[in-house]
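Inputs:
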Amino acid sequence: MLKEYRTLVPFVRRYRWSYIAGIACLAVTSGSQILIPQFLRRAIDAVSWGGFDLRTIGVLMIQLIGVSIVIALGRFGWRYFIHGASRRIEAELRARLFEKFLMLQPSFYHRSQVGDLMALSTNDMNSVRMASGMALVALFDGVFLTAGILGILFVQSPRIAAIVILPLPFITGLILFAGRFIRGLFLKVQEGFSSLSQQAHEMLSGVRVIKSFVKEQFFLGKFADSNAEYQGRNMKLVRIWGLFFPLVSFLAGITTLLLLRYGGEGVILGSVSAGEFVATLSYLEMLIWPMLGAGFTVNLLQRGAASLQRINAVLDETPEIASPPDGVRVMPSTAISIRNLSFTYPGASASALHGVSLEVPEGSILGILGRTGSGKSTLLRLLPRTDNPPRGTVFVGGVDVLDYDLKTLREAFGSVPQDTFLFSVSLRDNIGFGLDDPDETLIRHAADVSTISRDMQTFPDGWETEVGERGITLSGGQKQRVAISRALAKKPRILVFDDALSAVDTETEELILNQLLSERSATTSIIVSHRVSTLAAADKIAVLDQGRLIQYGTHAELLTQDGFYREVSLLQQLSEQKTYTDPEDI
Amino acid sequence: MEEEQVLSGYNPRVMRRLLSYAKPYRLLAVIAIISLGIGTAGDLLLPIVIQRAVDDSLIARFTRIPAEHVIEFRAAEFDDAIVLSGATYIPDDKLVALSGVDRIGLTESGVLDEAGYYVFPYDDALTSTFDGSFGNVVTDTGTVDGRQYASIDAAELDELSDQQRRLIRGDDLSELRRTTLVFFVLLASVLAFTFAQIYFMALVGQGVMKDMRMELFSHTIRQRLGYLSRHPVGKLVTRVTNDVETVNQFFTDVLINLLRNLALMIGSVATIMLLNWRLGLVTLATLPPVLVLTVFFRERAREVYRKVRMWVSRVNAFLSEHLSGMSIVQLFVRERKVWGEFTERNDELLRANLGEMYVFAVFRPIIDLLSSVSIAIVIYYGANFLLSGVVSLGVLIAFVNLIRRFYQPVMSISEQFTILQSALAGSERVFEMLDDVDRIPDDGKRTSPRPITGSVEFDHVWFEYKEGEPVIRDLSFRINPGETVAVVGYTGAGKTTIANLLTRMWDIQRGRILLDGVDIREYSLDALRTVIQPIQQDVFLFSDTVGSNIALGRELSKDELREISVLVQAGFIERLPDGFESALTEGATNISTGERQLLSFARILAHDPRIIIMDEATASIDTQTEQLIQVAVGTIMEGRTSLVIAHRLSTIKHADRILVLAQGELVEQGTHATLIAEQGIYHNLYKLQYQDSTIT
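Outputs:
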């Protein structure tokens, strides 16, 4: 368990002075706390023996207030130092985790769920923080305060001390035992919750089926069952967890009861003074927190270790796609050469590409046509190393893409992926996303080319309009045009469109293509499209089917060949009708 | 992840509405509150029991009034006064009615004996231990109610043996044992009632949560498809799960604890006043600082808490968004910039967290300090009062205890107010969603009284999803019972929309759609959708067994299922490891696209609609399954009115009639033969012999 904490060692070393100061404050606090009941004892004894001087009591009480001020300062101090350090460690660890996230490759994101990764940064960070802060405090109090108080109690009246502390270990034991038990029940509740969420998610996603088949009642019934099941699990937890704190109070009460019984007897028989009795009463009250604390420490450390284990698993991931040492930092030209490229996704049984060879001279346009699953997107992903191609298969400017510095390679590309992803920032920031220095003219120009600038007046805040989560406030065509602007704004040397105009009507598409063609000059371009009208502008067209290159030539050549390209082309010539975007995407 | 509005301020309307959900559980709530009352009372009684033990057993001294002053002092009128050899003994704690000045005066004039005395019954067992010196040790002796009593100066007691002390104070010892027993019973009942309070309140909270979640979910699922496509599923799920969860928190964490803490604070003050009003007033005088501080703290706490919540949700939103869009970040080489943006937010979160920490780090120790100051002041004045006999030692000890009990909840109460507000904000979001009713009006009275023959007619139908962008324009056509009609056209021509309109997933803006000559709006939604059912392009399957995905809750026997699967050529089911019991994973990734298609046919047969609308799949399907699908399609269309949104010319060729759609308008219509003869669009399509290929 402790080996998971290795991740924290450098942090703790950095904040060692905070920790030392915090522990010093804690020591002052605990030490002073132990004094308080002594003042009470002396005051009560003076009072119960009678014949006391009121000034003595006054002086005692002023001392008590003085010590209380020291305690308050000490308490502030340890919170300030220890909580401060653990909060900072939490923030730094979270930042380190995010840094790692930025380096990891798609295959990592493919096998992990965003929700789980989020949990690392939220719940797991919390438990690490608790382990690096509260656990320490609880441990210190558990050991030192307990030792100090027990010392005093045993010096004062060993026999009574021995009896009254009997229930205290049960408090610690209760936490250790119940902790594990409660945790099991708690996990069950969480499972119930996530299965409820999952069910709600599935039913709302499949709501069309539910409505179509008039199954509202049936599915509501199923949901009701899970809902009741979740309630049941909660109540099971409450049955145990609800007993926990009352039971701790009860055990604490029993120590008081033992004091009352045996300490009281001592007072009656004169072996214990009334002041000692009252002081012991206070001490016992003070012992409850360290006893709870000792149990909590163990739980917190265990939980922290489990969380750290999950965090470490991510921190220990080696990024599969990284710059080679001394990567090439200059791209001599943007001519792309693909040589006998075959590619299989890890874990997949069939290969996505088989022996594909293509040459795209600098400044030319390659068009790609193929059905869903023909390997078009895979081919595009291998160029900027979103996935790693096998060595010796993909070259840009005569250099194997694997040999480039990753930044040099990727900065050359301006990509518009098939699945349009926009960030929930303003339109301007989305378009300028790829720019180090968001230059207004570049952004405006890119927006003009993609024709999204035409729509600007229809947005409530123009350029500053927030596009919402994943661009939810925009139509499919608008999203694609923003994504096109984003790729153009960075003035890339190689432009890659993966079916980037699918949601744009043909008229607009033509407008965009014309503007692109008129100014792309030396840009090498690869355009995947299902529309022959788009592909016609390409210098060469590749037709892919099931990962193989089945046709390769110019538009004119392919039109004269019998084959997929001609079929599609003739079919699409039939209607020059303007098509509309289909907004229903449930 | 949106930024939730954390603290909307206290809203009595939301609070009342929330409480109204607890109505069905009011009996449980009453039990919980009664338990709370008893538990709290028990909690407050514990210090009283200790006080009693101290005064009646532990200290239990008497003041002696010599015989000559008994009459003048009217000593016999005091409670529990005992007369031995003419002198009267009055328990110390019964003398508190005397003012301090009186008492000092009386002691000086010899009316009250200065020393403290113990009064005890004795017998031979005790006297025999003194070897005849008993008479010298004791001050007075006498008989009370037939028992022999003696009195002894408290200072003398220390000179005696342990055994003698035990015998002399035997009554006090047995009284202490009884008190201990009472203490135990109190502890046990506090345990029982506190648990009862927690348990019953949890039943209330859980019940309300369950009801509200069910109400919200069934409300949501009945909203129109337009509403559901406008709101991201994730957000809806969050409302149904997390936000409803805060409602439970409201009842079990906030409401009951707030009540309990208030009861404890008021109870301790009341007990203090009852025990001794003079010392009570002194105690009360020390409380205003804590009240002022609490009010001040609440403001600060709310502020810092709001900040923390805000930055937590910003960091999380940023994280979740960039984890989803990581490939874009990497493709555009924006790692450095995004890292910078993240650390900015993360630092703000740290700052907010530290801000919260400072507030609590200051507040908590100050509250503790104030509690100590209160105790010190009370002990000082208490000692003064004790000196003058106004309070007993036990009462003073009880005060110390009760003051601690008063200060304990101060801290948590201010925190609970903050949680209360966030719980109310959660409920407010739930109520908002419940109040946003957006359904397809379902006031059709017809519940298909007679068998539907299955004719469908579009009569000058206009429809748009977004204002100003009509998808269907003035569309009119008729399908006769039992006819198979194919709709062809390009993506976006409005083909799929026809299916949505016919089943009233969306309502048209102009024109009429008739089923058997009657406007579909005159049928109840249930009736309409039982008659007309769609087969979707991308089949949605639930993560359940194959069998339940077909039956969707209908009671179908194994044999019926098998019969249906044979009819739709879904022989693959029998080859699955558990047949119909095989579980489908999320998104049904464990079966092929073609197989999913066959399952959706089985679903249709299991529900036997009169009219089907089939949206043919465009995805490529392997040749073998493709052939099975062709056969199955023939089977399910038999005897039914079918509208096929066709992508395969082979399907189209078999149709009785073909509608060619473009831009939401009907451009050609006719049978295969007439359309060929027209030499129009369809003719060209056919000439291409575009069989088995798909238009994508």
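Remarks. Chain A touches chain B through 146 residues (CB under 8 Å). DSSP finds 20 helices and ten strands in chain A.
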